[in-house]
Write a sequence for this structure.
């Protein structure tokens, strides 16, 4: 619960962060078509009773990262529901919905470059929580302020991306919607490609 305690004024006061809204983070993104597996899985997921954050996370968010990871031949790591304990004294600790790292390992040992929070409804309240996790990721990685960290909050219909650039949390001026899935996939691949040498994506998940 530690990350949930944060509001933006506390992040600014306790960690010296600044907040910059209304800035476009992504330009000329190449859309990525969802695989047939992902289309089928998401269609099935949307028929489930999505009455909680956990349900939305499992049925609609996890398949997206599973699909991209396996289509990229597991070139990056996807961790679900794992603790990111960077600084317990500063309350930068707790469980994260999804963490993306630069290596596909069984434990979180490599650099974290993106975090995703799946919310039931309102995204605005989730932004400080995600921002705190992004700050924790930087500390976990060795506290290099020149390393950008990305984040995203989603209720599965809306996707809002963030970027921690030095001491500034940048909130993308654009909100992306579920019917823009190829663009959302393209943004995620664009972010991953800044940290990982990605192969050409396969048309379907690679299961062997």
């Amino acid at each position: 619960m530690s990350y949930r305690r944060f509001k933006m004024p506390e992040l600014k006061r306790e960690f010296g962060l600044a907040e910059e809204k209304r800035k476009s983070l992504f330009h000329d993104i190449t859309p990525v078509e969802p695989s047939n597996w992902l289309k089928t899985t998401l269609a099935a997921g949307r028929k489930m009773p999505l009455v909680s954050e956990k349900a939305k996370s499992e049925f609609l968010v996890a398949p997206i990262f599973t699909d991209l990871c396996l289509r990229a031949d597991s070139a990056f790591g996807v961790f679900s529901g794992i603790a990111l304990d960077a600084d317990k004294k500063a309350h930068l600790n707790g469980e994260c919905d999804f963490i993306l790292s630069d290596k596909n390992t069984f434990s979180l040992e490599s650099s974290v470059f993106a975090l995703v929070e799946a919310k039931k409804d309102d995204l605005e309240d989730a932004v400080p929580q995600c921002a705190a996790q992004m700050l924790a990721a930087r500390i976990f990685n060795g506290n290099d302020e020149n390393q950008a960290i990305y984040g995203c909050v989603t209720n599965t219909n809306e996707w809002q991306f963030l970027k921690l650039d030095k001491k500034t949390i940048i909130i993308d001026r654009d909100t992306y919607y579920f019917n823009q899935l190829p663009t959302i996939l393209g943004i995620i691949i664009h972010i991953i490609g800044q940290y990982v040498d990605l192969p050409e994506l396969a048309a379907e998940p690679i299961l062997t």
